Amino acid sequence: MDRIVSWPDRVETALAWLAGLLWTAPLLYVFVRAFESGTADLSSAWQAAPFGRYYLNTALLVTGITAAQLVVGVLAAYAFARFEFPLRGPLFAFVLVQLMIFPEVLMSENYRTIAGFGLLDTLPGVGLPYVASAFCVFFLRQAFLGVPDELVEAAQIEGVSRLGILWKVFVPAARPSIVAYALVSVSTQWNNFLWPLIVAVSDETRPVTVGLVRFLAPETGIDVPRMAAGTVIVTAPLLALFLIGQRQFINSFLRSGIK
Amino acid sequence: MKPRTSPRRLPDQVFAYALLVPAFAFLVLFTVKPLVSTVVSSLYDRRDEGPTLDNYRLLAEDEVFRKALVNNLLFSVLTVPVSLALAMLLAVLLQRALKGKALLRAGVFAPAILPVVAVAVIWLYFYQPNIGVINEVLGWFGVTGPDWLGDTALVLPSLMAMMVWKEAGFFMIFYLAGLQAIDPELDEASLLEGTGRFTHFRRVTFPLLMPTTLFAAIVALADSIKMVDFVFVMTQGGPDNASNLLLYYIYRVTFAQHWPQYGAAISLLVIGVLVALAVLQIRLLDRRIHYR
Amino acid sequence: MALSPRTRALAATTLALTAIAGCSSASGGSGGDGAKDGVVSIDFYYPDQVGTLSTLIDGYLKDFAKEHPEIKVKGVYSGDYDQTLAAVNTAIDARKAPALAIMDQSFMHDLVERKAVTAWNPFLTSDADRKWKDSFYPQFMSNSVGADGQVWGIPFARSTIVQYWNKDYFKKAGLDPEKPPAGWDELVADAKAVQSGAGAKWGLFIPTSTGTAYWLYQALVQQAGGDGAISDRAGTKVTVNSEQNVKALEFWASLGTQKIAPTTEVAWGTSTDDFLAGTTGILWTTSGRIGSIQEKAGFDWGVSALPAGAGKGAPTGGGSLMLFDAGVSKKQKEAAVTLAKFLTTPERAADVSIKSGYIATSEAAWNTEAMRAHLAKHPQAKAPHDAVADAIPEMATPDRDRVVYQTLAPALQSVLLKGADPRKALDKAQSDIDAVLKTHR
Questions:
Q1: C303 occurs within a structural domain
Q2: Cβ contacts (< 8 Å) between A123 and chain C: which residues?
Q3: Per the domain annotation, does C10 fall within a domain?
Q4: For the domain that residue A74 is a member of, what is the CATH number?
Q5: Domain membership flag for residue C431
Q6: Same domain, yes or no, for C100 and C244?
Q7: Which of A82, B290, C120, C281 is least buried, going by the fewest C-beta atoms within 10 A?
């Protein structure tokens, strides 16, 4: 069924392009400035800091933390959503209270803990405080609660073990929520700056954000082409990835959407 | 019906506790333990003598803290709904059949890919009063642009606009996913009944996106408090503390002024507010999920 | 929050788990006195405020490794001065302080009070050592030495405030391009002239940012005939509301009311870009910007010492090498001293100065061949050297962040940006600062 192109349609199309332009313009400007003298600025920015290493560190941190959060979160959410046990209520309340307490607010104490483990300036040291996320537990529990009992009972009849049920029934059914949480987690770690700045002091452990600031230091006055080049180096690969894979990316939330 | 049990199978209750061990272990280690130390620390003075309530007394009269608190409340209360509303609008606009849709989506999402520190450096340049891009563009239209970051009245709104720009594209992705989940038959029904677009959005789309909105609201609220890296790069909280935010102030007191005891007292107050917010959100969220 | 036995058991389990994880991934930290097989390992934190310093230091450290195989230095770029302080503070708390770090000299009182730093004196025992210490300009040493004669910092990347002016604008406005303003009246007159005669948007930029407003204010107070140092030697007595203090701030605020300078914040970081873009005809900022202005200016420019009034001279600034104590063994400290000497030879001091714009820290450095060749090619580079002659110490107090950034800077900004009354603002700042400092006497 084809719609007739109506006035409201045109207005919406115009709005869409206007919004697209507004959102893209700053970045387009940055990209243009990065290439204003060919690739000279890009290559000098690339050489100014070991971006390859920073990228690797960020990749390890982002995947490591997100994976750990999901494993830990899925297990705990499963317990809360599926089983009856003494103190379930209080324990869950204990998790909930921490929903909005993030490691950043407790930086000073966490630094001591990490130092005590001898993990300063190591990737595990940067990542450990984020491994357990109350939000992840809470959010996945909500998703698990929505899994129909019939699915679970069917699996039980087939003799699937409890962990098997988690893996074969709950995880697939909650995939949209898991993907949504993963996206938030990846984004948080990708943006993270303050904590790594304090804990990761050498090039071997620094993520891209901390490395980027190293030569963007606006204290010196702003060198726009250089700044633009740094920004392009950091964002271009991800942007390309998104452009190529956005359909799959958005579809991975699955039909049922976020619950 | 009785599930099949194997002889070596742990009882359900023990199994459940085992599932909780990793999460609780890390929560205790990186939230509860530091929280307890923070409470203790906040009761000591700068020379670690105490216990005393001096830090809290100081907090009650600390003008900078009050400014940071008000700034942060304004920042959260304004950026969160605006980001989400724009995200929803963008998702609705970019979900329809449209030439160049993929490119537009990528363009709107792109700012979300930029780390906050990079966003800050870019916008620091855009916002410059004399050599910045924004005022140059305004100049083409004969408008003399203001000093966005140098004016105590404008600095916070300018920072808010920047963060909305960054966050809206990010949350749009969630709304796009949420929109995909809405049954297309509902659209067609509205079309057949001749329901107006806005009415359709209000009656059908908006309520069905509610779970997404609540999820995004939690994330956005948390971001509005912890993503303060731009203050470091752009304003250092100035001018005249007009852009001081809570976490930045905590960082300054704890690390730059090396007064962890007072920093602890501020942290606890902030945590108190956060916990209250969390409880509020859970109430909302629980109601939505259960009675939907 | 009471912990149930169960919670405690869980906590214990976690600790055990994490400890195991820790052991497997910790990269064999340098425990004990940092010495292993006769090789001493030390950490060295260095900030970079100008963008070129970190590359330079990386290079020096490579040379050092060749010359001193017995010392292993882990060089850590630690952001700007404030971030470096934060990083060092956290490291001290964990008793893992770097043996050596370049710190903003004005953090000294804080660090000494907390016993975070070690004095250099015990390591300067031979005549050669003392000669090395005495080779630095006394203006730079003046605020590196405590009231009791203890040396806490060795000058490394030091600077002062200088005046840059746009000669093209001066010519166009009918002014003598070789004659920079030498007093307040000339300053105002020249600034107005470049606005009306050469079309500059603004006449004069004196940065008012939170992080640096106090520094420029110091120069103005000195010019007004007051005590530009603002703080006494021990750092516990600060005067910001004297007649001259008020006069200096009134003059500063008058630039805005006369429309010579904006009444919004003049940003420290980008003021150089404004000067380069021709937004302002005159700029006061750090001597450390000479390099980048030289590189980028598309017009003829000059640099000089600041104008004089009843008084003369600008505060020094920048970073010094400091020795830290927490978790650092005597051997490591000795290694740090060796590194410090290596980094401050006249040749390297000249190299730092030439490539980064900081002021070479000794007369010997100014007399090196490299420096002479540089001066022959870039005569402007001599201006900061001349400015050092009248330099005054940078304002330094205990609890500096609270005194300077949290109290004085907002007070100055409230006058400059929001038109508050200078005397009232400074009186209030004075009582707030006194309250903070009272706890440190």
A1: yes
A2: 25
A3: no
A4: 1.10.3720.10
A5: yes
A6: no
A7: B290
Chain A partners of B113 at a C-beta cutoff of 8 Å?
190, 235, 238-239, 242
C298 and C414 together in one domain:
yes
- Judgement on whether residues C341 and C379 belong to the same structural domain of the protein: yes
Note whether C330 and C412 are same-domain residues. Answer: no
Residues 6+ apart with CB under 8 A from C299: C166, C167, C168, C169, C278
Ranges of chain B with pLDDT below 70: 1-8, 285-292
Enclosing domain of residue A222: 39-251
B117/A209 touch (CB, cutoff 8 Å), yes or no: yes
- Are C323 and C409 in a shared domain? no
Q: Provide the residue range defining the domain that includes C238.
A: 159-316+392-438
Contact C211 B236 (CB under 8 A): yes
Cα C63 → chain centroid: 26
Q: Is residue C15 part of a domain?
A: no
Length of chain B: 292
Residues C220 and C101 in one domain: no
pLDDT of residue C21: 40
Please list, residue by residue across B258-271, b when 16 or more beta carbons sit within 10 angstroms of its beta carbon and e when fewer do: bbbbbbbbbbbbbb
- C4 secondary structure, DSSP code: P
Q: Is residue A34 part of a domain?
A: no
* Chain-chain contact of A115 with C86 (C-beta, under 8 angstroms): no
C399: left (phi over 0), alpha (psi -120 to 50) or beta: left
Q: How confident is the model at residue A209 (pLDDT cuts 50, 70, 90)?
A: confident
Which of A219-233, B11-25, C217-231 is the least confident region? Answer: A219-233
Clarify whether residues C307 and C418 are in a common domain: yes
User: Cα dihedral angle (A64, A68, A71, A72), rounded to 10 degrees?
Assistant: 180
**Tens-digit pLDDT profile for residues C144-177:** 998 888 999 999 999 999 999 999 999 999 999 9
C206 φ/ψ angles, rounded to the nearest 5 degrees: -120, 105
pLDDT in tens, A42-56: 888 888 778 889 999
Higher pLDDT, A111 or A74: A74
Which value, in Å, is the radius of gyration of the alpha carbons in chain C? 24
Average pLDDT of chain A to the nearest whole number: 85
Which amino acid type is present at position B292?
R
Q: Can you tell me the distance from the alpha carbon of A138 to that of C352, in angstroms, rounded to the nearest whole number?
A: 55
Q: How confident is the model at residue A221 (pLDDT cuts 50, 70, 90)?
A: low
CA separation for the pair A204, C91 (Å, rounded): 18
Among chain C, residues having any CB pair with chain A shorter than 8 Å are 6, 18-19, 21-22, 25-27, 29, 45, 48-51, 54-55, 74, 76-80, 83, 86-87, 90-91, 93-96, 268-273, 276, 289, 292
Neighbours of chain A (3+ CB pairs under 8 A): B, C
C21 and A124 within 8 Å at the Cβ level: the answer is yes
Which H helix or E strand runs over B200?
Answer: helix B197-200
- Which residues of chain A lie closer than 8 angstroms to C270, CB-CB? 218, 221-222
Residue B176, C-beta contacts closer than 8 angstroms, at least 6 positions apart: A250, B91, B94, B95, B105
What ipTM does this complex have?
0.86
| Domain at B64-291, CATH from 3.90.870.40, 1.10.10.10, 1.10.357.10, 1.10.3720.10 | 1.10.3720.10
Give B224→chain C minimum CA distance, Å.
22
Of A24, A30, A135, the CB nearest to B107: A24
DSSP characters over A24-81: HHHHHHHHHHHTTTTTHHHHHHHHHTTHHHHHHHHHHHHHHHHHHHHHHHHHHHHHHH
- pLDDT tens digits, one per residue of B209-234: 888 898 899 899 989 998 888 998 88
**Half-sphere CA count of C120, side-chain side, radius 13 A:** 26
C298 shares its domain with C364: no
In DSSP notation, B63-109 reads: HHHHHHHHHHHHHHHHHHHHHHHHHHHHHHHHHSS-TTHHHHHHHHH
